[in-house]
Structure formats: structure tokens, C-alpha cells
Amino acid sequence: MVRARPTRKDAAPLSSGFVFGRAIGPGWLFPRSGIHHLWIVLPGLDILLRRRSPADGGHACSDLSDCCRRIHRSTCAFVSQHGDRFRVRVVALVLSLGECDVDRRHCQTRAGRSRRDAPIDGHIDSLQRVLVMGEDLGKRWDVGHVDIPRLRAGGVRAPFFALWTPVYFEGAEAVRRTLDLRDAMQWLLEEHRDQIELATTAADIKRIAKANKIAAFLTVEGGHTIADDLRVLRMYYQLGIRSMTLTHSKNNNWADSATDTPVHNGLTDFGREVVREMNRLGMLVDLSHVSDKTFYDAIEVTSKPVIISHSSMRALSNVPRNVTDEMLWTLAKNGGVIGINFGEGFVNPNDVEALNADIKRETDATSLTGRALDDHAAEDVRKLFGTRAKVAATIEDVADHIDHAVRIAGIDHVGIGSDFDGVSGPPIGLEDISKMPALVDSLLKRGYGKRDLKKILGDNFLRVIREVVGK
After folding, report:
1. Which of 310, 401, 404, 413 is catalytic?
2. Residue 459 catalytic?
3. Which residues, at least 6 apart from 379, have a Cβ–Cβ distance to it below 8 Å?
4. Residue-level pLDDT at 382
5. Which residues make Cβ contacts (< 8 Å) with residue 223, sequence separation at least 6?
6. Does residue 294 or residue 118 have the better pLDDT?
């Protein structure tokens, strides 16, 4: 690779509200006639920034991570601050030579406007906080794991927002709860239309990410939410929902769950109809939390790739919600993708007790309905977010599961499905979604290259969305 020749080492002003002091590592910044070029040769580049003073002119950024995005068209991780000087690390592996127009704050590559990557998290449960706790995810919070500022800080452009309805909501109550969650999502979309937008196709995800917004991809968690009615499933599709897990913590009337005593021996005839209808509509069949037999039945029926949005490796943590190596081989043959789950018990067997407690809380039966049922569910959500469980799991455990999945299924079939805001104890080093660059660092140290990381961080999920949705 030919390196650009640096023309000087002194600070060059940028429209971002910061100016470069110097670059540390294999990269240079140099100005030419009001256009500023940045060549990044290797990942892990550290750059020193100084906050622009009013005398410097130009526009100010809303925060440091916003400046990184505008300057680099990539993701930066905050390292340290000394007075008005900041040190950041370029994490994304997407840059070559770019041009930034200072006056218009418009970045282009030589071939035209650069394409933004669209890192994907295949499962977050953050809508519970909007519906139950009334939190505005447009603001940064000290509680929970995800909000728009932390999505930006973590470089995640396209999260799968789960409409999770606990299994003690049954029949019409389950449909009502799912619609309440969809309404909470709509509020978020309308309240922050300049920052987040509904995505229903792979093309939407790319377009929205390119516009520097969050692409919200919607999924229903738990097939009990269709109340055994394909017409409800079709209405969910009309509401922009493009994925559904077949079961959650308990069996439903047509599929067995991983954490319940089997009663159907996998999928019933109606369960097979559900899979075929999802194929026809263009909805992702999500096999997280299903029993092993349900998994194989769904693979037999489906005509399109499936996903396992948020599960990990049973070989490393032997819990029924994780998958076996044989299931991984079958998934790869199908062309599907697994999103590695960060939750307690999923990645470290020493945390299984905390996972079992979470499952028990959801599966405890209740005969409540209406407002009383909503209040019961709200209490459960508050318990989940009240205190973070102490865990043994670390970021390296997550990387171990990614390694194992890649080794068994292949690099084309592995992604991320954190389960943030659906777990009470994320791993040490991955406490919330803003910490995602640390996972990228860990994978870099393990020898993953640019193309491999792009697949794990989003391209594999994008491929399946494209194949299933058809656009």
C-alpha cells in the first residue's frame, strides 16, 4: 500500500469543532487548499485532538464521538482527556483516503460519498425501558445498557429492537402487550426522527446508516404473541416487524421451548405453517430459545436462511438456550447466522444461577389481566434494571464464544446478539453497548482481519436480511 506523504506535523483545523495536534502510529493528516485528507494505514491508530476555541471558528460537535464520526467516517473510542486535549483510538477498519469540505462539513471519497458501515446487534430489549420506565432513549442514562448516545459511542448502527412480551401474557393479552411495545417504538422514532429511523430491509439499513442515523430493525420475541393466529402475524409484518423468535421461556401451543418440558416433540403442524408463512412474508425465523427438536424441525421446513439472534456455545457454557456444535453445522448448511449472546450464564458457566433466576421470574404463572398484569410485568422489569448481577463472565469469554462459533460454523455465519437490556449481568468489560469497541480490540488481538470483522459486526446479518426479505 502506498502511503500519503505528510506535508507538516503542526495542527490542522477541521470543521468538526476539534483540531488535530498529532497522530500517534501509522497514519498522517495533512491539509491542501482547505481540503483535509486523512490516511489511516492500520487499525488501532491513536489521535490527539484539541477542542476548538471560539477563535478557531467553525462548528462545534455535540460530543467527542460525534466529532470522530464526522472526521473519520468511522468509530472512535475515548481513551483519555487532559484539559482541552482528548486522545481517541480509531476502531473501525474502513478508512483509506478521504476528503472533508470544511465549509459544508461534507465528507467524500475519491469515488464519491463514502459508504458507512452498518454494525448490527441482533438483539436488544431496550423498549421495556421506554414502555415501563418512561425513559427517553434519546438521552444518555446511567441505568440500562442501551440508548442512542451509547449506540453511537459503541459504533452500532442497526440494533434489532425486540418487542419482548413475557410468557405470562397469553392470547389477546400477549397481542396487546406487543402492540404497546410497538407504540413505544413509534414514540421513539417520532421523538428523535433526526437520529433514528425504522428499517425493514437491508437497503434501508445501509441508507439510514449512511445518513448517520440509527436503523431500528424490529423483532417480536416469543411466538405466543401471535395468539395462534396467522392474521396477527401478518399484521405484525404490516407494522414493520421483520423477525420473530418461535418461542421464549415456555412452550407455546405450537412449539417447544429450550427451557420447558417438551410437549409437542418440536413443531406442531401449525408451527410448521408459521415458519412457511414467515418465509412467504419475508420475516426472519429466529430460533433462539427454542428446543433442539424445534430447531431441527424449523430447519427442515424453512425455504430460507434462519437466524439464532442471541445464543452462545453450549460447548463452552452448557445451558439449554445455547447451541450445540451439531446445531452450528446445520445452521451453516442452511446459510443462517448466530448472534453471540453476552448475557450471564450464556458465556460463563459460573453465572448459570443468575440466568436461571431470570428465567424463573418470567415463567412464574399469574392469572392477572389488564392493568394488574401490566403492573406485575412492570415490577419484573424494575427488578431486572434495579441492580446489576455480579458476574464472572468477561469480554474475553465473549471472544472465546465468537472464536468457537467461527471455528465450527465458519466466518460467514457468526454475528453479535448482545441481549443488552434483557440481561441483568453483562460481562466485565462489556457493561453496555458503548463498550463494543473493546470487543473489536479483543478480536483484533486474536488475529481477525478487516473482512472478517465486517462480517461478524454486521455483513452476515445483512446478507440474511437481504435473502429473506428480498430487497
Report:
1. 310
2. no
3. none
4. 82
5. 244, 245, 246, 247, 252, 254, 255, 271, 274
6. 294
Is 63 among the catalytic positions?
A: no
User: Residue ranges per domain, the chain?
Assistant: 18-109, 120-469
Options 289, 401, 404, 413, the catalytic residue: 289
Q: For position 45, what pLDDT does the model report?
A: 44
- Catalytic-role residue among 117, 221, 286, 374: 221
- 120-469: what CATH class? alpha beta
Q: Which three cell numbers stand for residue 398?
A: 465473549
Q: Is 289 a catalytic residue?
A: yes
User: Does 12 score more than 50 pLDDT?
Assistant: no
The rounded distance, in Å, linking the Cα atoms of 246 and 252 is 9
Alpha-carbon distance of 384 to 461, in angstroms, equals: 28
- How far apart are the C-alpha atoms of 194 and 169, rounded to whole Å? 34
Q: Is 125 a catalytic residue?
A: yes
Catalytic hit among 117, 419, 421, 432: 419
Say yes or no to pLDDT of 400 above 90: yes
Distance, in Å, from the CA atom of 253 to the CA atom of 263, rounded to the nearest integer, reads: 9
Catalytic-residue membership of 221: yes
User: What pLDDT is stored for residue 100 in this prediction?
Assistant: 29
The string of pLDDT tens digits covering residues 416-438 is 999 999 988 899 999 999 999 99
Least confident of 19-28, 138-147, 394-403: 19-28
